[in-house]
Amino acid sequence: MAMITDKDGKGCGRIEQKTKTVIYVDTKKIKHGKDNVWLSITGNASAVAAAREIIQTKLHSED
């Protein structure tokens, strides 16, 4: 997967080449290791839904 980064270094993302789905993490407000982050997922509807499900499953498995 390709990586993308903001010019100001305040965010990063991944591009899945096959579906062109982008998951972008906004790191502008992170000051401590446990701060909340905003994720932005763009792409076609089914790819976005699949990415959301994978992320939610991963987050809940770490609780």
Task: Characterise the protein shown here.
Strands 1-2-3-4 form a 4-stranded antiparallel sheet, covered by helices on one side. It is flat, with a radius of gyration of 13 Å. The longest helix has 17 residues, at 45-61. A hairpin with a 5-residue loop joins β1 (2-5) and β2. The chain is built from 1 helix and 4 strands, in the order ββββα. It has 63 residues and is of the alpha+beta class. It starts with a strand and ends with a helix. This is K Homology domain-containing protein. GO terms for molecular function: RNA binding.
Mean pLDDT: 75
Overall tally of structural domains: 1
Q: Biggest β-sheet, characterized?
A: 4 strands, antiparallel
In terms of DSSP E residues, the strand content is 25-35%
Judged by helices, strands and strand pairing, the structural class is: alpha+beta
Helix content: 25-40%
SSE series: EEEEH
Mass-distribution shape: flat
Rg from Cα = 13 Å
Oligomer state equals single chain
User: Order of strands side by side in the largest beta sheet?
Assistant: 1-2-3-4
What is the straight-line distance between the termini?
27 Å
Low-confidence stretches: none
Number of helices: 1
Say how many strands there are: 4
